[in-house]
């Protein structure tokens, strides 16, 4: 047991499905030591929803157990399905503890259950004047990482994003030669070093319909995307594109690459989430730590019913374990 990677799993928004997903995960026999971060009373209550006794030992750094609980109390009573801004800081406390443990070598990886950005922005972070954009951006700031890349993966494909949580009107200005270069370098490096792909092939989507159609439907492909790809090809990267997004996501095209770089959130993720059927995984590339996550939200309407599908959390945990083993082998 001591040789298995220790994986921190945060429960996210306590009123959402996260706690019961963790309780369901805690019943599974996975090749890791799982540390469930959350309010132990909430986890205990939700365990009953998924038919679990929820009898896990309290976590300490010396704990050696298949599953243990690191108790971080909620600030206010938790009712399934009902958000409470008083618990906004609790959600961030879970992340902070997991990140600190990962940076210190206490945890090999972090897996995150969904949080609710709205309640965090209405709660503690709004008092400090800081806007909470999401897990990805928060973890980048918390680890002092200047740029990270959001990638979702499933059995059929990997899709990374050139921009993440931006209004659509702001996307074109955010796609610059510098940002695109940095994103592709991070994606290429992590495909190589974290996923073990010796020579990554990356399919790059255009921004505009038909990839700009030779400038008739936009100039970003001509002015920014193509010159950037050419410069990186000269460095040895295998980059295919820019490709029209409406024909990129077909099986024949996808077989040509190891990952897709989409220009914005809703260009690539709806396709992946349709293909994954609830088993997609969110991976944050570029961090000094390993972080995976579910590809869905808090599902407040399902919280407390025991009907939430644990598939994405299981897949995210399994990938975190695989990446932790790969990192361990690389260090050795």
UniProtKB/TrEMBL annotation:
<feature type="binding site">
    <location>
        <position position="273"/>
    </location>
    <ligand>
        <name>substrate</name>
    </ligand>
</feature>
<comment type="subunit">
    <text>Homodimer.</text>
</comment>
<dbReference type="GO" id="GO:0008615">
    <property type="term" value="P:pyridoxine biosynthetic process"/>
</dbReference>
<dbReference type="Pfam" id="PF04166">
    <property type="entry name" value="PdxA"/>
</dbReference>
<keyword id="KW-0479">Metal-binding</keyword>
<dbReference type="GO" id="GO:0042823">
    <property type="term" value="P:pyridoxal phosphate biosynthetic process"/>
</dbReference>
<comment type="function">
    <text>Catalyzes the NAD(P)-dependent oxidation of 4-(phosphooxy)-L-threonine (HTP) into 2-amino-3-oxo-4-(phosphooxy)butyric acid which spontaneously decarboxylates to form 3-amino-2-oxopropyl phosphate (AHAP).</text>
</comment>
<feature type="binding site">
    <location>
        <position position="282"/>
    </location>
    <ligand>
        <name>substrate</name>
    </ligand>
</feature>
<dbReference type="GO" id="GO:0050570">
    <property type="term" value="F:4-hydroxythreonine-4-phosphate dehydrogenase activity"/>
</dbReference>
<feature type="binding site">
    <location>
        <position position="291"/>
    </location>
    <ligand>
        <name>substrate</name>
    </ligand>
</feature>
<keyword id="KW-0520">NAD</keyword>
<comment type="pathway">
    <text>Cofactor biosynthesis; pyridoxine 5'-phosphate biosynthesis; pyridoxine 5'-phosphate from D-erythrose 4-phosphate: step 4/5.</text>
</comment>
<keyword id="KW-0862">Zinc</keyword>
<keyword id="KW-0170">Cobalt</keyword>
<feature type="binding site">
    <location>
        <position position="210"/>
    </location>
    <ligand>
        <name>a divalent metal cation</name>
    </ligand>
</feature>
<protein>
    <recommendedName>
        <fullName>4-hydroxythreonine-4-phosphate dehydrogenase</fullName>
        <ecNumber>1.1.1.262</ecNumber>
    </recommendedName>
</protein>
<keyword id="KW-0664">Pyridoxine biosynthesis</keyword>
<dbReference type="GO" id="GO:0051287">
    <property type="term" value="F:NAD binding"/>
</dbReference>
<keyword id="KW-0560">Oxidoreductase</keyword>
<feature type="binding site">
    <location>
        <position position="136"/>
    </location>
    <ligand>
        <name>substrate</name>
    </ligand>
</feature>
<dbReference type="GO" id="GO:0008270">
    <property type="term" value="F:zinc ion binding"/>
</dbReference>
<comment type="similarity">
    <text>Belongs to the PdxA family.</text>
</comment>
<feature type="binding site">
    <location>
        <position position="165"/>
    </location>
    <ligand>
        <name>a divalent metal cation</name>
    </ligand>
</feature>
<dbReference type="GO" id="GO:0005737">
    <property type="term" value="C:cytoplasm"/>
</dbReference>
<keyword id="KW-0460">Magnesium</keyword>
<keyword id="KW-0963">Cytoplasm</keyword>
<dbReference type="GO" id="GO:0050897">
    <property type="term" value="F:cobalt ion binding"/>
</dbReference>
<dbReference type="InterPro" id="IPR037510">
    <property type="entry name" value="PdxA"/>
</dbReference>
<keyword id="KW-0521">NADP</keyword>
<dbReference type="GO" id="GO:0000287">
    <property type="term" value="F:magnesium ion binding"/>
</dbReference>
<dbReference type="InterPro" id="IPR005255">
    <property type="entry name" value="PdxA_fam"/>
</dbReference>
<feature type="binding site">
    <location>
        <position position="135"/>
    </location>
    <ligand>
        <name>substrate</name>
    </ligand>
</feature>
<feature type="binding site">
    <location>
        <position position="265"/>
    </location>
    <ligand>
        <name>a divalent metal cation</name>
    </ligand>
</feature>
